[in-house]
Amino acid sequence: MKHTILVLLLIALSQQVGAQVPDRDAYLRGFEQRVSYVTSFYDTMQTAGYYQIAVRYAHNRDIARADKMFAELLREPRGDMFWMIPSIGAYLHGKDKMSAETRALVRNAWKTYAPYRGDTENHWCMYYSALYLAAEQWPNLPGSEWYNGKSSEENLREAKEYLIHWIKITTSIGQGEFDSPDYFPEYAMPMVLLSHFARDPEMKMRGTMMSDYIFADFATEHLDGQYIGGYSRIYQPAVYKPLLSGGSAFAWLYFGTGTPTNSGWIVIPALCDYRLPQIIYSIAVDRSSTIIEKERKRVRNVIRFGTEKNPPAYKYTYITKDYGIGSLQGGILQPIQQHTWGVRYTYGRPYTTIFGLHPYWSGYEVGMFFPEEVKTLIADVVASKGTYNNPDKWTGGSPFERTFQHRNTLLVLYDIQPGTTTEHIDGFFPRNLEERIVDPSGWIICKAGDTYVGWYPLQEYEWKEELESPANSLSDIGRPQLERVKETGNWRLRSHKRQNGYVIEVRSNDEIGSFEKFKAGLQKHIPKATLLPGKVSVHYKTLGGDAMQFAFPEKRVLNGKAIDLSKTRLFDGPFLSADVGSEKLTMTYKGKKRVLDFKAVTITE
Amino acid sequence: MAAIKTLLIMVMLATGIRSGNRSPEAPVYEAKRDYYAAVFLNRSHVSVGASANIGLFRRQSDTLWANIYRPNLFTFGIGMWAKGSTKRYYIAAGNGVHRSDDGRTSWRVLTDWRTEEILSLALDPVDSSRLYIGTPWGVFRSADDGSSWQKKSRGMKKGFVQKVVIDHVQRQTLYACSEDDLYCSTDEGENWKPLHVGVSGLMTVVQNPVNPAHLLVGTEDNGVRVSFDRGKTWKNAAGLPPTAFYALCISSDLETVYAGGYLSGVWKSRNGGLSWDPLWQSDQLEAVYTIFVHPENPRHIMIGTSGQGIFESFDEGSTWRQAGLRGCHVKQIELYP
Questions:
Q1: Angle between helical axes of A50-58 and A81-94 (0-180°, round to 10)
Q2: pTM reported for the whole predicted model
Q3: Looking at this predicted complex, what is its ipTM?
Q4: Residue A558: enclosing H or E segment and its boundaries?
């Protein structure tokens, strides 16, 4: 009963933030309530787990049980960097409270269990952050006391060098695994831990600054607990049930939005002393004005089949208080789990999104990013990311897809080569739309509460009612949001034409007045397309009166002026500002300012 | 007795091994030498706590191989340097070069965050402090026992180096399989020149130990090519399917060459690789990653496969049997003292 009241209170608090940003005291009170909610779930849990251990130590409660759990788990450590972060987090929260025997067990684990470093940016961020903290805790030990044969000083130096390198490239040319609703936790956890526990004041400062950086990046593209826009990586089912992602758990804890959760991802950060600066919180929740955010990120390291190690990824995002629409420019920017564009809105949880894709897969794509033999690599990738070669999948980029977004209008074109693994394109329409009208004008006109979405297919298509089978309702790698319920009713738009595309228009009721006006407007705005192999283009005059011309792959013209994406700044929006190469991020909100200068390692306000 | 049997089965399952049918010609186990295998498993085992069974394995018996280092090490290759009583074991792994100087009791990672995956390694046969590695970002060289590494890729158009090998005769000469060509350096990696194989996606290279001008390369999509003049001119190999060939091996009889790759089975050439005949085609074989021929018994051949472990023949490839590590990707097989 008490728990139910707390949940209702938390939900009520999270409803308030859309209208007016609560002040600092109110924010901190809400934050502490959310911390209490999530940690109380773990401090009585009897099954052994690092979160349970960390909470007990932090709360100074049932230490003997925490010690026993630690000993139990350290009998056979596993999980590599996914072990390193929670185990060092639990240790750091409890090192002054645990028994000497438990301390020795933890130390011994770092000598005998050899975690793998992994091969993605988030793996390395976790690996080196945890190694850095561990090397600080146990200085002056020879290589024989560490799993990798390196001394404490060597490990500390290597970890520090990598982290500084990662921070430098991220703040110069953008994050590689950028804006990932599912991988946000893998960056937030290590950075918050560094912020709290690093002994070196400079590294502690860097941890705080990078925590600010990634939270600010999320905040400016955030709506109602959801990340808005194109993403580097996302899993099913979070791609169509957005609040299931780990990032949404962080939104709930730090922004007070979305739904209450006891996700394990947020437990250790909840115990740390990092607090979101008020300016980032304000950026996250103030949706009183429309936001147009342009960003430059970087493609994951291209090891083969490319000419540039980290080509740019360009983002364009438009957000109101009711919805957001965002896009990447298209092409292969990340392997396997790219989300090139999507509309997300506040109506109709859990299916709060409409999006489309070309469900492409190939040895070429995985060979760009992974070093193994290309032909056998696909089977290995499928073993890890089960939906990769599924023609019905809902994630992934394509070399045959490009976008052009201006405000809340998006043009998407496809010129798919014959013989490609999949030769169709798909669109996701959730079952809970209030309206999904196939208008005689050609527009598909949808109503999702106060958000109206128009989708104009440039080619013939069919509707398929989606049967969400157990296979694709499970998340790919057994993340906490496992779903086992068979669901039906979402709609798949499928078109089998290789030269293809569509136009997306989104408006809120506030923006256009009514659904009827939206419909009437769309009926007068019909795109003109050329759809021939090697010659795919569309001309379209938006509901806002702008003339957009788009020719596949890269010719984008707005009101007669060519768009040059290469001039995109690192952050360019009403709240965040950063130039490529600057290693500096300036946040502004209603006359307040916060500047993160990573060269000088300073924060100024 | 039942308990012992159960324990034995559990050990075999734990190491990913199941026994195969015993060949009528049982293997002769080596005195003072052991078989080692580099095992690379699928990517699902790197995260969320799944236990893997990959890394460096040593043969225990007929089909039983034991992981002798870390069970989670993505292992691309292995190496050994021996002189007198000094034995150094090396592993080329996803997280760096590992070396043991004390008979595999303890290991040290020699590289740091700058090198990422180590796809192959080449050890100077004379100077143990000098070693080369092939990586997705080019060739790196250490001349100080692995304490420091320098990138050595001047002259290469593409950085991805699948394999680097040292010339059998001139140790200053190196060959590197890159994404776009086979490259040669005659100055210990300082400068590289393309050998214009004529196809891209170079996967492997072998050099004939008695005729150093005789080179063969396996490619990602274009079969095998052969040169008899140190790479000045290249010839297409006849008879092979135009698929990926990852494994080439010149037999210890110094005449026979073996090749294997993706959906290719195992092939045999008796004329230095100019023409080929199928040796073993089997539905069991997806890809052949490596081929080993016993240094003193050319009738004894082993192949490392994708997902099917090791197969072994004692009659020069006429008959084969599963020899352990079923379920594993075996990237390299060696017999080391």
A1: 20
A2: 0.93
A3: 0.92
A4: strand A555-558
